[in-house]
Design brief:
This protein has 418 residues and is of the alpha+beta class. It folds into three domains: 3-218, Rossmann fold; 228-298, 2-Layer Sandwich (Uridine Diphospho-n-acetylenolpyruvylglucosamine Reductase, domain 3); 307-417, no CATH class. The chain is built from twelve helices and 22 strands.
Length: 418
């Protein structure tokens, strides 16, 4: 493959993020330096993040200096995390990975970046296939690196190492050398430096054949994902963000958003990297970015009325029964039993700013807003929530949690059920 074709392939993957703030994770090695160079060359808005693990003494310092000089010469903002020598003391590769990804995500949030990029490539996934064969030979459990995972994009994941090298040579790119990659202590390095070269002596097309296996696994998974992409629930439709990691399911997602009257591809592509809580609105529906899911809900006028409960069956805002009973029991999501001397009327209303209650089964007071946050409730769920109140007192977050102070579990009671 020519270096120009390589460049065009990468640009196709990332062109939707041309106007976004991108945090490029850069080790200083060939792959990440090529990716940073390519994005710079094509005028993307990038900054650099680098972790110095202090594992290789003077070489680690030289590598950090290479990154600093690269950022200085290209007028790029550098985010640097430097660990003390000996700070990594467990499984080095596993712990180092967790440290860098946790820190990358923290930087993304703190400095309002839209996207993180890493420079994983096809050979990394080939190595993952082989590692999986040694550690867990079940095809269903082979761990493949995803191209897109939430706010992390790997735009050269389907490109071969040889093509990355060709691009570096054609553009005269300097990079830092990590001597630990040539050491055969780790299983990945033994596979990279010993096993794969020996296999390629037998079959020079080995990497391409494993690439076909990866594509086959991905294709089978993609067909299942597409068939189950839009999950229809009672009040909304949800889409798992993880299921949009490949081009085929992403294209299907964007195309089918027309059913909800979303037609602007640019607006949708910008929304794909939106932070939790962001939403876009069509003339009929709203899409909300909510942690692991996108939620789609039909637009409606929110009922903000207050309803006074009468004894017996009440029809508004939904079917709710108020009665006296001789047999109280512990509260659940459908029913609560209150002390008989609670003054009527009871009111069903929406939560208000500043509402607090004493959650049943817990100690102390809690703001409703904090309770909703701890429950990881979406904006849609919070908007649709009702509470049962008596004056300023919250008796029950209906369907969720009752207030400790008013609950009766034995004897005569005032029973409310939905």
């Amino acid at each position: 493959m020519s270096h120009r074709l390589f460049e065009n392939n990468v640009l196709k993957k990332i062109k939707a993020f041309k106007e976004k703030k991108i945090l490029v994770c850069m080790s200083g090695g060939l792959d990440s330096t090529v990716l940073a160079h390519l994005l710079l060359k094509n005028n993307f808005k990038i900054s650099i993040a680098h972790v110095n693990y202090s594992l290789r003494g003077n070489e680690s310092s030289k590598n950090e200096k290479f990154i600093r000089d690269f950022c200085k010469s290209n007028k790029l903002k550098l985010h640097l995390k430097k660990l003390r020598k000996g700070e990594l003391n467990k499984s080095i590769q596993k712990e180092a990975r967790k440290i860098r990804y946790d820190w990358f995500k923290k930087v993304l949030i703190e400095y309002n970046y839209d996207l993180i990029t890493t420079a994983h490539h096809l050979d990394d996934n080939v190595e993952n296939i082989l590692i999986g064969m040694f550690r867990n030979p079940s095809r269903n459990n082979l761990t493949l690196i995803p191209e897109l995972n939430k706010n992390i994009l790997r735009p050269i994941l389907n490109e071969k190492k040889d093509d990355i090298i060709s691009y570096a040579i054609a553009n005269e790119i300097e990079f830092s050398i990590d001597s630990s990659n040539s050491q055969d202590y780790y299983l990945r390095n033994r596979i990279r430096n010993i096993l794969i070269p020996e296999i390629e002596k037998i079959d020079k097309n080995f990497t391409e054949k494993v690439s076909d296996i990866i594509e086959s696994i991905g294709s089978s998974k993609n067909d299942f994902v597409i068939d189950n992409l839009f999950i229809h629930e009672l009040h909304h439709t949800k889409i798992n963000k993880q299921d949009l990691q490949n081009e085929k399911s992403l294209k299907y997602f964007i195309e089918n958003l027309k059913n909800f009257n979303f037609y602007s591809k640019k607006e949708i592509q910008n929304f794909l990297v939106a932070k939790t809580g962001k939403k876009i609105v069509s003339n009929t529906h709203t899409i909300l970015s909510d942690r692991e899911f996108f939620l789609i809900k039909r637009n409606e006028i929110l009922d903000s009325s207050e309803y006074e409960l009468e004894m017996g069956i009440n029809q508004n805002p939904f079917l709710i029964k108020l009665e006296r009973s001789d047999e109280a029991k512990k509260p659940n999501s459908r029913e609560v039993c209150l002390y008989c001397d609670i003054k009527l009327p009871l009111i069903v209303r929406r939560p208000k700013i500043g509402d607090t209650f004493y959650p049943y089964g817990m100690k102390g007071k809690k703001k409703l807003s904090k309770f909703f946050k701890d429950k990881k409730m979406s904006i849609f769920a919070k908007q649709n929530q009702w509470v049962l109140s008596n004056g300023d007192n919250i008796l029950w977050i209906i369907g969720e949690r009752a207030d400790n102070r008013f609950i009766k579990t034995k004897g005569k009671c005032l029973k409310i059920s939905i």
